[in-house]
Amino acid sequence: MSTVRVLLADxxxxxxxxxxxxxxxxxDVSVVGEAADxxxxxxxxxxxxxxxxxxxxAMPGLNGLEATARLTKSWPRIRVLILSMHQNEEYVRQAxxxxxxxxxxxxxxxxxxxxxxxxxxxxxxxxxxxxxxxxVSDYVQRLRGDVQPGAQLTPRQREVLQLIAEGxxxxxxxxxxxxxxxxxxxxxSGLMKQLDIHEVAGLVRYAMHMGLVSSGL
Length: 217
Known about the structure:
Helix content is 53%, strand content 13%. It is of the alpha/beta class. The chain has a 6-stranded parallel β-sheet, with helices on both faces. The chain starts with a strand and ends in a 7-residue tail after the last helix.
């Protein structure tokens, strides 16, 4: 695997320093640049041509949502992962409309960030469980009538699917089911492959279709 070139965009120097350290501790990941606002980011993107941009929402000059729209329009192959303190549903929907491949909250675990990074580099969309419930109603409404491929799930798979749909993190699921985090990740990956669903919102929709969770979550 070639080295993944990542560009950071956040107006807080300490946040960028922490993210740089975390990302560069991951195998085959290199932080090639940093920007403190959206306009500076777009200039750096043109110069550095990263594979992925880790983007904050609240930045001076040009916010992350607008920067995402401009970036994905001009460089559609570059993936954008939003990392924000804002759980506002409209922010999440706007980020996805503007072309973001992932939306994570800043209080997510390092493991969650690594999981999201791997997912978007595979061409998938990733949402933190905490924000996925906020957009699932729109997702279901748009795809109502679509039926995911049927699958015979094991009892353990059903348990994991339900907990994902209820918004629990990987670590919480592992603790509840007395499993290792790696085992939960394996179940999650297996579910996505078996059901041909590659985003959390899709798993939530499928769980609702199966009756594992209700739309009132």
